[in-house]
# Entry
Amino acid sequence: MELPRSVVIGHNALDEAGNVCTGLKLGRRGLIVEDPTTKQIAGETAGQVLIEAGIKAEEHVIKEASLEEVELVERALSDLSVDFVLGVGGGRPIDVAKCASFKAGISFVSVPTAASHDGLVSSQASLLGPDGKTSIAAHAPTAVIMDTGIIAGSPHRLLASGCGDIIANSTAVLDWELAHNLRNEYHSSYAASLSEMTAEMMMRNARNVKPGLEESAWFVCKALVSSGVAMSIAGSSRPASGSEHLFSHALDGIAERPALHGEQCGVGAIMMMYLHGGDWEQIRQALLDVGAPATAATMDISDEEVIRALVRAHRMKPDRYTILGDRGLTHEAAERLATATKVI
Ligand SMILES: [Zn+2]
# Structure
């Protein structure tokens, strides 16, 4: 199991970045990977804090989360003989930092500026390759620093999307159990229970997730860490990624303008829970309570795109067995499912 050694969540947590890095003896040279926006929000402060702690901090501003960008960062790592990497951002800089540091064999510190998905804490990186978005196995962060002031100041849509990604754990664990029972796939009860509990706590407290509230940011951050730990225990993304994620991946390729990852997974979870015969209405209500979309229209995605994504979903990751089975849904069944769950 690969787990973060230090997780700091709270008001002004960013100020602790220097202490965390020196405390973990990560080295004297750090590279901050950021994008132009997150540089302003947190990257510059992170740089100052590291310098104050006696760490030489270099910067690298990325344009996109692509394999090409990973190579650029890798080159910077060896040119500057960097000891560790700090990824500062909502997702893209973190994915690039995670992958480049993994390839270089050095530590990675995750500094999210928004709590929009559980990849901020996991070992998986989502990157743009020649054939579109791909998920790459890298390493878990050595430390996670979540400044709730910064996260609460990010658009609420991002936090609500993070809630959707966590709520989606409820169908992911059912798919995992199914794969275990039907395909004898490795299953960890500890990882599954932790993931399920995190989703349940999120649904129970959905109404308390409010825009701009630091306490809400804190709650979602803790849930994302918990979800990330479940994946670390499992050694894969299984506890937090099932058929609802396959639907989201399919939608990424089909939709003209895909919605946010957590938004799509949340809506996917409504429909997959219906297929599992569970309480899909509870999922729908929790999404509405946190302010996340529960329909195609509110995701700004067409009904037809949702249906096509449902039909294609089972083909996205053929080795990931889910409720969609080997053959997936027919167009008619997909339309009926989306209609019955009020998604279209
Ligand atoms: Zn996810």
